[in-house]
Amino acid sequence: MQVQQIVKKLNLTVIGGNDGIDNEITGGYTSDLLSDVMGNVGDGNVWITLQTHKNVMAIASLRDISAVILVKGLKPDADMLEKANEEGIPVLGTEMETFEVTGKLFGFLQK
Amino acid sequence: MQLNYSIEGGDFTNAGNASSQVKKILKKLNVDPKITRRVVVALYEAEVNVAAHAYRGEIIVDINTERIRVVLKDEGPGIESIENAMTEGFSTASAEVRQMGFGAGMGLPNINKNADELNIKSDVGVGTELEIITKLK
User: Fold this and answer.
1) A16, A21, A89, B87: which has the fewest C-beta neighbours closer than 10 Å?
2) What confidence tens digit (pLDDT) does each residue in B23-53 have?
């Protein structure tokens, strides 16, 4: 499963990091606590969060996250977006709330 | 090989720069990705700790064929109780830091989990020195 497939399936907006649109997805992780993600996320997971600052991309890069989904129509800070483009890690947007998008992604990845 | 970085208290924008650069260097050196992950997770958490709690800090990353030794030495308030600080869930981080999703009391426990050896020296009112050793073999 590639990032572009979930973009299509969940109707997500690609906000930045287009270079990583073919990244392979291994699963997902939902959390807004950065140390929790740092300690527990799996390589290649999609990370669903409401955090929009640059440190999100630092963690995404260090832990080889395949894409970040920002919930509730949230937009990344300018320096987060810049880092996403630099690292080639897609930042995806949705109007859905965390519960809904996590559930949909989970269901989709189970198939 | 020795690498030096510095970090300023409160500067979350640049917290993570050292771990990001170290990751790239370890990749070039063909270090096992699992070991690299342990090193950079521990270093990142330690960088964030300096940004969240201290005034400024120096980072030394020393790599040889046996191990990677990371030392973070900061000027800051120090740690009153290392035992408390090592307890998962314990945090003295500010509300502002917590809003960013840090300060959940997971930093030092994460560092401990990812280090083969962790040594902490701290003087209240002076600063803290962390030594993180990860074996390559």
Assistant:
1) B87
2) 999 999 999 999 999 999 999 999 999 999 9
Residue A36 host element (H or E): helix A34-40
Specify the DSSP element, H or E, that contains A79.
Answer: helix A78-87
Domain ranges across chain A: 3-110
CA distance A29 to B56: 33
* Chain A residues closer than 8 Å to B15 by CB: 55, 58
Cα A83 from Cα A62, distance rounded (Å): 12
In angstroms, the separation between the Cα of residue B24 and the nearest Cα of chain A is 10
For residue A111, the SS3 value is coil
CATH no., domain B2-135: 3.30.565.10
Ranges of residues in chain A whose predicted pLDDT is under 70: none
Cβ of A36 within 8 Å of Cβ of B41? The answer is: no
ipTM of the complex: 0.87
Q: Does A32 touch chain B (CB under 8 A)?
A: yes
A33–chain B Cβ distance below 8 A for any pair: yes
Is the pLDDT at B137 greater than 90, yes or no?
no
Q: What is the mean pLDDT of chain B?
A: 95
Q: Which residue of A has its CA nearest to B15?
A: A55
CATH number assigned to the domain with residue range A3-110, chosen from the 4 options 3.40.50.720, 3.40.1390.20, 3.30.565.10, 2.160.10.10? 3.40.1390.20
